[in-house]
Design a protein that fits this description.
Elements (H helix, E strand, L loop, with lengths): L2 H13 L5 E10 L11 E2 L1 E14 L4 E6 L4 E6 L19 H12 L7 E7 L9 H17 L5 H16 L6 H8 L4 E6 L5 E5 L4 E7 L7 H20 L13 H7 L5 H25 L3 H17 L6 H10 L5 E6 L7 E7 L3 H16 L4 E5 L6 E2 L2
The structure holds alpha-D-galactopyranose (GLA).
The site of alpha-D-galactopyranose (GLA) has 10 residues, from helix 5.
């Protein structure tokens, strides 16, 4: 049974009638441009064929009853309890409850009509695996609140509202990439987003390559505090560099050459963090003509460089991610391999010649398992369309 069916059936079982609506929102994988979205840089993600599905109906009241099928948990809250993050009994909302409630809060803040719903949801985006499971829950519920509220907004605006929910309600100071990819994904296309202007365009994935995701199966806690710290380092770098370049607004505004000549003004750790960002923004800009010209070998090289930079300068890698990337890079047919998303644990993204992708998948799984005793999930993924509802 696929997820779409299981949430529909579970809804009927729980609420005694068929759901009025069914919505979904995908996770994402990022090919290049890591930890640059909150520095006004360029990112190159794709929405993937793993998603959160939500079956829902209007409750006709201000009360929402939401069931998380995977977690076998349920939360009930009134809309007036949402700002205080309280459920109907005045207790603290569960951790997962913050995502749908955060969306209700952020949509309400924008003046959009939010009404109560009954819902059952489930996701096959692995949690804590750097594939944006949170953003997919936010965007799926964004669609749900939209349907119940009877209004409509462009996907990019929904993404910004999701980011606001995550920043101000959940407390993770993320950039726009994940919600953007989940909301604006397109089938078989990569998305190139300028995180400053929010303009984006899509690019075809060259015909002869496959995107392979390799899940280390390792998860870490305290990732969001480490993430928020990285972001603070970038802000500190901007503050210090501004003394020399008063027009500087973000690390997007300094070239690699200028950064090299001013780097000694920064404390060592801040310098490393900022160096990754400045190089990565330049790397992503360089990668686009390569991709457009079908030079997937050179593009893959940039992915490998990105991994090294995330490991050595930004220090958001982890032993299992390093091992997975390091095992993948020399395998025949692999063009590039690196950790994807926020980091510390979770998944790598691999660009692989299509004709070798099955062999690559088997070899990488076997080698990783041999070294760690862990059975990884390695699979070829498809670039997919963004959040939508089926009915
Ligand atoms: C997380 C955040 C994104 C982005 C990536 C790193 O996924 O949610 O906004 O910063 O990390 O590129």
């Amino acid at each position: 049974m696929d997820l779409q069916e299981s949430v529909t059936q579970a809804y009927e079982k729980r609420f005694g009638s068929k759901p009025e609506h069914l919505a979904f929102a995908p996770g994402r994988v990022n090919l290049l441009g890591e930890h640059v979205d909150y520095n006004d840089g360029f990112v190159l993600p794709a929405a993937i064929n793993l998603a959160t599905w939500v079956a829902f109906s209007s409750s006709g009241t201000d009360t929402s009853t939401l069931a998380a099928l995977d977690l076998k948990d349920e939360t009930v809250f009134d809309l007036n309890g949402v700002p205080e993050k309280k459920d109907k009994n005045g207790k603290k909302l569960s951790e997962w409850g913050h995502y749908p409630a955060g969306m209700a809060w952020a949509l309400g803040e924008k003046g959009l009509d939010v009404k109560g719903m009954t819902a059952v949801f489930s996701s096959d985006v692995p949690r804590g695996a750097s594939l944006s499971s949170s953003a997919s829950v936010e965007m799926a519920f964004g669609k749900a609140w939209q349907t119940i509220g009877g209004w409509s907004i462009p996907p990019m605006q929904m993404a910004l509202i999701g980011q606001r929910a995550e920043n101000a309600y959940v407390g993770m100071n993320c950039g726009i990439m994940d919600q953007f990819a989940s909301a604006c994904g397109e089938k078989d296309r990569l998305l190139l987003l300028d995180c400053r202007s929010l303009e984006y365009r899509t690019l075809p994935l060259p015909d002869d390559v496959a995107i392979v995701i390799a899940d280390t199966t390792v998860r870490r806690t305290l990732v969001s505090s480490a993430y928020n710290k990285r972001r603070e380092s970038c802000e500190e770098a901007v503050r210090l560099l501004k003394m020399q370049i008063p027009t500087l607004k973000s690390l997007r505004d300094i070239s690699v050459e200028d950064f090299n000549s001013l780097a000694n003004l920064l404390p060592a750790e801040t310098e490393m963090r900022a160096r990754h960002v400045v190089n990565e923004i330049a790397r992503t800009s360089r990668s686009i003509p390569l991709l457009e010209a079908g030079d997937v070998e050179s593009f893959g090289q940039l992915m490998n460089e990105c991994h090294a930079s995330l490991r050595d300068l930004y220090e958001v890698s982890g032993p299992e991610l390093d091992l997975m990337a390091c095992l993948a890079q020399p395998i025949h047919g692999c063009l590039g391999a690196r950790q994807t998303g926020g980091g510390f644990a979770g998944c790598t993204v691999n660009l692989v010649k299509k004709e070798y992708s099955d062999e690559f998948t088997k070899t990488l799984s076997a080698q990783y398992e041999k070294k760690t005793g862990l059975h990884p999930a390695v699979y070829i993924c498809e670039a997919s369309r963004g959040a939508d509802f089926l009915y």
